[in-house]
Amino acid sequence: MTDQSPDLGDLLEQPDPSFQNVLSCVFGIQDHEVRTYVALLHNPGSTVEELAGEMERDRSNVNRSLSTLLENGLADRNRRLLDAGGYVYQYTATDLPEAKQLLHDALDEWTETVHGVIDDFDGN
């Protein structure tokens, strides 16, 4: 995968797009953010540091990916108090059935909009 989010045209040209490509296109997120989502699915409750180690990526890049996932409703963040004092944030991916529903809802909304554009076109 490239590190760009595919646009709808790219997606339509694929005879059998992957779930990751659909996720990237629908939410307008980059491939590294999709990889972060998948890593969270396999490692729920991870910290930024743990994910960075798991994914072999810089912590700042993982943190930006997590922010994007949070903005799109694809992850949750919880604060855990540490025994020694302080706290750490733990991240969990939105469960797959809910993420799939988010995708369906976004596509349904987009399709409705496109149908409206088609119906409203008067030749001018």
Describe, in plain words, how this protein is organized in 3D.
The chain is 59% helix and 11% strand. It is mainly alpha-helical. It has a two-stranded antiparallel sheet. Helix 2 (19-27) packs across helix 3 (31-42). It starts with 7 loop residues before the first helix and ends with a helix. Residues 23-88 form the Transcription regulator TrmB N-terminal domain. It comes from Halorubellus litoreus. InterPro entries: ArsR-like_HTH, Tscrpt_reg_TrmB_N, WH-like_DNA-bd_sf, WH_DNA-bd_sf. This is Helix-turn-helix domain-containing protein.
Map the helices and strands.
Elements: H1 8-13, H2 19-27, H3 31-42, H4 48-55, H5 59-71, E1 75-81, E2 87-93, H6 96-120
Antiparallel strand pairs: 1-2
Helix pairs in contact: 2-3, 3-5, 4-5
Could you name the key traits of this structure?
mainly alpha; 11% strand; two-stranded antiparallel sheet; Arc Repressor Mutant, subunit A; 6 helices; 124 residues
